[in-house]
């Protein structure tokens, strides 16, 4: 664990200059309309929500203005806005639009990908299994359950790393269709899978293996060890499905907009299980504007790094372990039981993330604004004085 935390500290020190330089630019990178830039003391009716990894800054000014201009479009079907969004996503990633599926949030992408892989197995008359790290985002298991698909879990190691070698061995030994689900950065631990490990596995995997790479938090990553699965799709025909979301850094969780980037063949299969019209007009218009707002996105990234510095400094001082964070949340030790910790935080009007298997004495906490994290760390220090952690 010591090596993991040292690695996390080195990453934070490396980007320290970036944070300072960005904040020195002041208004140029201001979120302008950020929903919660001014910190307010949390109350019972208005708690500090550090539980769902939502963007503490809300959504961008460009998206807000686009929504306001488009209210008159609500009575009409969203075909034009949806087509434009697909084109804007293609331009953003420099890929062809025919590789993109739009989804009602990235969770719909998980579900449709499972159903597509299951049908592929049926057509090949082969069994199917899903291979996942443990813990990871639970929706993969929820959507597999109605289809009675076997889910094989591989525990993270002592430093929260995904056990790529064991997962790879299982994939190679299985005589059937393997759907490998990798959340990168992982949820709830927020650590990343290195590009070399991931790419070498994808390139050597069996033709009956499909990789489902969930990159809901990819926009927050600044480490050069990370490389998106989208890049391998640009120069390969491997069975790779990449999930992206407008719910996190883009701040549009309530509008439910996500997308898939994959091969033409897998897109054809996935389309069979997607709703024909799953994106609403305001969601499409807001997402088109948000994906073009570099200044807002960069402000959120750098504010997130500052918040990360605040909490890791406190965790170090309290000698509480944590996984190296590459997203807008952190997974840290609490020493006691999770339920007690969550209830005590709720008494302080702070809501924290849910419990995860194998880690009863850890908590996932959203990285809010720097002011919010100062408040959270103050409560942590008070808990230590009261021997609650």
Structural topology:
Layout: H1 2-14, H2 16-24, E1 48-50, H3 61-69, H4 79-93, E2 100-103, H5 106-124, E3 128-134, H6 139-144, E4 150-155, H7 164-173, E5 177-183, H8 195-204, E6 209-214, H9 229-234, E7 240-245, E8 258-262, H10 264-271, H11 281-290, H12 294-317, E9 329-333, H13 338-347, E10 350-352, E11 362-366, H14 370-385
Parallel strand pairs: 1-10, 3-4, 3-5, 5-6, 6-7
Antiparallel strand pairs: 2-8, 7-8, 9-11
Helix pairs in contact: 2-12, 3-11, 4-11, 5-10, 12-14
Family: Belongs to the class-I pyridoxal-phosphate-dependent aminotransferase family.
Domain Aminotransferase class I/classII large: 49-376
GO molecular function: pyridoxal phosphate binding; transaminase activity
Could you characterize what this model shows?
The protein has helices spanning 2-14, 16-24, 61-69, 79-93, 106-124, 139-144, 164-173, 195-204, 229-234, 264-271, 281-290, 294-317, 338-347, 370-385; strands at 48-50, 100-103, 128-134, 150-155, 177-183, 209-214, 240-245, 258-262, 329-333, 350-352, 362-366. By secondary structure, the chain is α/β, with parallel strands linked by helices. It folds into two domains: 48-59 and 294-386, Aspartate Aminotransferase, domain 1; 61-291, Aspartate Aminotransferase, domain 2 (3-Layer(aba) Sandwich), CATH 3.40.640.10. The protein is globular. The chain starts with a helix and ends with a helix. Residues 17-29 have low confidence and may be disordered.
